[in-house]
Design brief:
The complex is a heterodimer of chains A (about 250) and B (about 775). Chain A has helices at about 15-20, 25-35, 65-75, 85-90, 100-110, 140-150, 165-170, 195, 215-225, 230-245; strands spanning about 5-10, 35-40, 55, 80, 130-135. With about 250 residues, chain A is α/β, with parallel strands linked by helices. Classes of the chains: A alpha/beta (about 250), B alpha/beta (about 775).
Chain lengths: ~250, ~775
């Protein structure tokens, strides 16, 4: 019997689910050969509440999302966070630096009174999470890796070392050499340093490693020309939640 | 014309035109094309240095342009721009010769920077393609291994281009101002006068990721080894990397021969090149890796228009015979090779402070050194140092199963001891859980474990880790030198400590008995002392003792008698404070403590044979009396002895009986004065300086001994200088506050000098350099 899989979205751009659909035809068929997708609003019209594995995209930013997520958790044997918003809170948490009323007002103006909002949070702030597929957006390869690990009943090999390790393996020249700054030294690898390989730098979308040496990274960023404020801003983009939680 | 010509190919007008304008403003010769077809037409007509190419074009894609360009004008450097980056297109574009990749939206200055670097790096190697010459005639003689021959650069290029036809060729290329090993499709891409590459060439022998097993699951489950036997040539390997390969050979081949490594190694041809342009972070000579005699098939030394080529193997010899025109090196060639290698070696800035053979022992002794903790504080555990290291070869093994769950592969990928989880086991225990122990482990591998296990240096001094480390802590050289210094300091401290003979009596006074007291003047008394143990004081004239009254304190006093007068010694005291008051209250028979003698005293040896002019003011007579007695007792050893003494009033004259005796002694010339006379005083009146003009001296053979109140020195010196006495001949004894007498407490210090040790006797020449002194 194939494992029944459901995808759900909370506060997000739904881009990570879109990336699931961006798997090549062959990969997608292989995936569908291994699992049965019973719930995926972005792709299929079926709805079923009978599932084993739930993939959750998005962070939690409204009261009403909390019971909905709890219900999914109660049903799912395995719950997987999908993408930066679900895993670490992501860019949604940028609003946590503002009073909630002000954030509502900024977004909805006079219509603010019709909406409610709470400080955004990753889903593990609400329910226990079994596995994480990180990134903004996710790496589909990693999603497939996690699915395979689930099917085999093993823990997926998700690195707990910084992006630098993979960036070096990719043969990249360090972006600091070109006067840019990068969060690679403290950000969890697993993306094969795709942004640096593609000519950009790391913004920390996969969250920090378990033991980031933040002090040292901050000193390095300052030494390479960032003001203390810019250093804070750089960490904020994806990793606000970890900061605020502290 | 080429020069700085750029072709921009993009179907989006706004992108195409904005780049054109920006580059034109920056001085480039810019052309544009909207489609692949237009681009190909333009390229057919004229040449360019660089092409900026959008991958997604209507009709033919950018990749098809690359193919065409690679065939027609392989020297054009292509930079891909795209809004849709993917690993596949990146790889494909790289395979087709694109040198870099930028993601839209573009920062125009980044693009301009890249184009400039590309043109500059190409400029180092001429881009003129010459048709390959017909293979040279086989050399008349068989080419010998270990022999050196000369090959022109053109001929070498032709060799490389021929090699490219028959095998995969990887070589050193310029990339954005740095150098990398990469697949090459033309000898013109090589940039062999490089400093260091980002990744080492060992990555072709032990790649970042490789499959080691393929397996099937379920019924009939089985696995089979996978190795890569593709022949390849690696061109441009520096000697330190060749040494690294030799080290890896030991690790992978000597015990439990590793099939994957051996397959790649045996199928790799290594063409080395001497490093004439070392990286400022490299310390290869200290590791003995700046040159290599073995470990290559061919080794090049750049002699300008040609290479000196050392043949390291039959494979290398065959290659030369087949594809190169060789000639015998002339004496000039050999001299030039030596000169360029010597010049290169002189360029290294960093050096190991100890012989490298001593590193294992040094590290052995430094396991608990504070350095590991302190220096690893800023370590990011990012793995950069170990990923770029040519001698690092640790790996992780992972299984990757296909989604059908029926088959899969086991892969190994680079791993490193600097990563947090490297030594973590399934139960959660991490055997190297802190930064310091990981940092130390890596340095120990480089300087000890690898050497002991494989007999080769674990660090080849390439400097890549030092370049890669953002925290700037990774260089093994720095660690080795720091540890060597720390061990040196520790050994010195241990030696001092081990050989220390504590002077347990240093601060404990010796008991001495007061045998005679005599009042000298209203406030001055002289005390004659004998040690209870009967021993002598053992002093020199001019030295002082510390007199101790238990419960009150200690004070220093100059010894007032000569060591020639044995059995007892005297010191004289003016009653001015608590200790002096307590001393003045002593009765004959009392026992007091004495420490000393301290200080240097007068250098009586240096005074021998000289005329001596004693100038004593007030109680300055006390220490001077010691020397006068000494001179009197050994009269024949000295020349004239002239004594000038001044007191403020006749009542304050000291040792009046002795003064009278000196006056009548024919061996002494004695002059005396008082500042203020009294009605019954018949002698000189006036300050002591008034006596000096009355004395005739020979400045070449006269030593002046001057002791008195501070104010006296300044005026006496003026008078003595009038008599042309050199500074070296003016000897003074200084008064300073003294507590310990043994050069520790610091009270008596004048600039860097301890008066109780180097003084209290100084020549004026010495004092001229001590600005606090007078």
């Amino acid at each position: 019997m194939k494992a029944k899989v459901a995808f759900f979205d909370f506060t997000s751009c739904e881009g990570c689910q879109l990336d699931v659909l961006n798997l090549t035809g062959e990969e997608l068929l292989d995936l569908l050969g291994a699992i049965e997708i019973v719930n995926f609003r972005e792709a299929i019209s079926n709805r079923s509440d009978d599932y084993d594995i739930a993939f959750i995209e998005g962070s939690i930013s409204r009261e009403a999302e909390i019971p909905r997520l709890q219900k999914i958790r109660a049903q799912a044997k395995v719950l997987v966070a999908l993408g930066a918003c679900a895993c670490i809170g992501g860019v949604n948490c940028l609003k946590n630096h503002l009073p909630m009323e002000q954030a509502l007002k900024m977004v909805y103006g006079d219509a603010a009174k019709y909406y409610d909002t709470i400080p955004a949070r990753p889903i593990n702030a609400v329910v226990p999470v079994d596995f994480y597929v990180r990134g903004c957006p996710i790496q589909t390869g990693e999603l497939v890796k996690v699915v395979k690990a689930l099917l085999l009943g093993k823990k997926p090999d998700i690195p707990n070392y910084p992006v630098c390790t993979e960036c070096k393996m990719a043969g990249n020249i360090c972006v600091f050499e070109f006067g840019k700054t990068c969060l690679g030294p403290v950000t969890r690898a697993g993306c094969n340093a795709i942004c640096v390989t593609g000519g950009r730098q790391c913004w920390g979308c996969r969250g920090l490693v378990d033991e980031p040496n933040k002090n040292s990274e901050e000193e390095i960023l300052k030494k390479h020309g960032l003001t203390p404020e810019q250093v804070v801003e750089k960490f904020k983009i994806y990793n606000t939640y970890a900061e605020v939680k502290k | 014309m080429k020069g700085n010509s750029v072709l921009i190919v993009d179907d989006e007008a706004i992108v195409r035109e904005s780049i054109r304008d920006w580059l034109a403003d920056a001085g480039y010769d810019v052309a544009t094309a909207e489609t692949a077809e237009e681009a190909l037409e333009t390229i057919a007509k004229r040449d360019f240095s660089v092409m900026v190419l959008d991958i997604r074009l209507p009709g033919q894609t950018g990749l098809s342009i690359l193919k065409e360009v690679k065939a027609q004008r392989p020297w054009i450097k292509s930079i891909i721009i795209t809004a849709y980056p993917s690993e596949e297109t990146t790889k494909e574009a790289t395979r087709l010769g694109a040198i870099d990749y930028m993601v839209k939206p573009l920062a125009p200055d980044d693009l301009e920077h890249l184009i400039r670097e590309t043109i500059e790096s190409v400029g180092k190697e001429p881009t003129v393609i010459t048709p390959p010459k017909a293979p040279g005639k086989p050399a008349a003689k068989a080419i010998e291994i270990k022999k050196s021959v000369v090959v022109s650069k053109q001929s070498f290029k032709s060799l490389v281009n021929n090699l490219i036809k028959i095998t995969d060729v990887y070589g050193v290329k310029a990339k954005r101002g740095k150098y990398v090993y990469d697949s090459i499709s033309s000898a013109n891409e090589l940039a062999l006068n490089y400093d260091v590459t980002v990744l080492p060439p060992t990555a072709y022998l032990f790649p970042p990721r490789e499959t080691i097993l393929k397996f099937k699951l379920g019924d009939g489950s089985k696995s089979e080894p996978v190795t890569n036997n593709t022949p390849r040539a690696i061109i441009g390997v520096h000697p330190y990397d060749i040494k690294a390969i030799e080290m890896l050979d030991e690790a992978f081949i000597t015990t439990n021969p590793d099939p994957n490594y051996i397959a790649r190694r045996q199928n790799s041809l290594i063409i080395g090149v001497d490093n004439l342009n070392p990286s400022p972070k490299s310390f290869a000579p200290s590791m003995g890796t700046h040159t290599a005699e073995n470990g290559f098939d061919l080794m090049l030394t750049d002699l300008g228009t040609k290479y000196m080529v050392t043949i390291g193997s039959k494979k290398g010899a065959d290659l030369l015979r087949k594809y190169a025109q060789i000639s015998q090196p002339t004496a000039d060639d050999i001299a030039k090779q030596k000169a360029v290698l010597d010049e290169a070696q002189a360029k290294y800035q960093l050096h190991l402070d100890v012989p490298r053979e001593r590193l294992p022992k040094l590290l052995e002794d430094s396991y608990d050194d504070a350095y590991w903790q302190s220096r690893s504080e800023t370590c990011l555990s990012c793995g950069s140092c170990v990923m770029v290291c040519p001698t690092c070869f640790c790996f992780d093994v992972q299984d990757d199963v296909a989604l059908n769950l029926k088959e899969g592969q086991r892969t190994r990928q680079w791993d490193g001891c600097m990563l947090v989880d490297f030594a973590k086991v399934a139960t959660g225990e991490n055997f190297r859980h802190d930064k310091a122990s990981r940092f130390r482990h890596r340095i120990y591998r480089k300087g000890k474990y690898v050497i002991e296990r494989y007999g080769r240096m674990g660090c080849v001094g390439c400097g890549r880790c030092a370049i890669a480390c953002l925290a700037e802590i990774a260089s093994p050289l720095e660690a080795f030198n720091a540890i060597a210094e720390s061990v040196r300091a520790k050994q010195a401290a241990q030696r001092i400590l081990r050989e220390a003979r504590p002077e347990s009596e240093l601060y404990a006074p010796r008991p001495a008995q007061l045998v005679r007291v005599e009042q000298l003047a209203a406030k001055e008394k002289v005390f004659e002392m004998k040690f209870l143990d009967g021993k002598e004081l053992g002093h020199q004239p001019g030295q002082f003792v510390s007199v101790s009254i238990l419960g009150i304190g200690e004070s220093p006093f100059g010894v007032a008698t000569s060591p020639t007068r044995t059995g007892s010694f005297e010191f004289a005291v003016r009653n001015v404070g608590s200790v002096t008051n307590a001393i003045h209250n002593l009765q004959k028979g009392a026992v007091v403590g004495i420490r000393g003698p301290f200080g240097n005293g007068f250098n009586v040896k240096a005074l021998e044979g000289k005329d001596i002019l004693f100038i004593a003011g007030g109680i300055g007579l006390f220490p001077v009396r010691s020397l006068i007695q000494y001179v009197m007792d050994r009269r024949k050893q000295f020349g004239r002895a002239i004594v000038l003494f001044g007191a403020r009033t006749p009542a304050e004259r000291l040792f009046v009986d002795e003064l009278a005796a000196w006056k009548n002694n024919p061996d002494l010339e004695f002059y005396e004065t008082v500042d203020r006379g009294t009605p019954d005083w018949t002698g000189n009146v006036g300050v002591i300086t008034t006596l000096i003009p009355k004395v005739q001296i020979d400045p070449r053979k006269t030593m002046a001994i001057v002791v008195g109140p501070p104010i006296m020195y300044r005026f006496v010196i003026v008078e003595l200088k009038k008599k042309d006495l050199p500074d070296e001949n003016i000897i003074m004894s200084l008064e300073r506050r003294m507590k310990c007498g043994v050069g520790k407490c610091g009270h008596c210090q004048i600039n860097g000098v301890y008066v109780c040790q180097e003084g209290p006797v100084f020549s004026l020449a010495q004092l001229r350099n001590l600005r606090e002194a007078v």
